[in-house]
Design brief:
Length: 195
């Protein structure tokens, strides 16, 4: 074999060897990825935790009523609301459509706080009213009897938007009276703003 031809054959052999080596490692990498995916899939489908029997890939964001993504119930315990992992997202055990004493909740409270215009209720959900249901928005700052217009312009049961806090031994400060739930409500209120 001529030296020039020998060099080309050697170079070609080396290139083929490197190519085969890289293909081998690529196949090995894909096999490891596949084994890992199978193991994760097996773990998810065989998880004995209620609500974790299946997992579907979700788009960006959470489905309605979902707070964040999860793989098990333990990952959902960071919320003040009782949540469970279902279909890969932390979902409230309470139905969001009726979590506010029958009215829908917009979210769960985070550290007792909600977005502007919403109140954290006693079940740790963000609601239009602090307690009770709302018959709807205020009309010219007026509401039906037993309701007052709150800061987000919704009619809420009297006192729910202006509750001072719990009474002490059934007593409240001057200007307030002890009412439902041992809470201190203003003695007089018309539209929730003292008018």
């Amino acid at each position: 074999m001529e030296p020039k031809l020998y060099k080309h054959a050697l170079l070609l052999g080396l290139v083929l060897l490197l190519h085969a080596f890289s293909l081998y490692h690529a196949a090995e990498h894909e096999q490891k990825k596949s084994l890992l995916a199978d193991a994760v899939d097996h773990q998810l489908h065989d998880d004995p935790t209620p609500g974790n029997s299946t997992r579907v890939k979700r788009q960006f964001g959470c489905p309605s009523g979902c707070y964040s993504s999860c793989m098990n119930n333990a990952q959902c315990q960071r919320y003040q609301v009782a949540t469970v992992c279902m279909l890969g997202c932390c979902c409230p055990q309470t139905n969001l459509s009726s979590a506010c004493d029958g009215d829908p909740a917009v979210a769960a409270c985070l550290n007792g706080l909600c977005g502007q215009g919403y109140f954290c209720n006693n079940k740790n959900f963000c609601c239009r009213c602090q307690s009770g249901t709302s018959p709807g928005p205020c009309v010219n700052n007026l509401c039906p009897a037993g309701y007052a217009c709150n800061t987000n312009n919704y009619c809420c049961s009297l006192g729910s938007g202006s509750v001072l806090g719990p009474g002490v031994n059934g007593r409240c400060p001057d200007g307030y009276a002890c009412g439902a739930g041992n809470l201190c409500y203003p003695v007089t209120a018309t539209d929730g703003r003292g008018r």
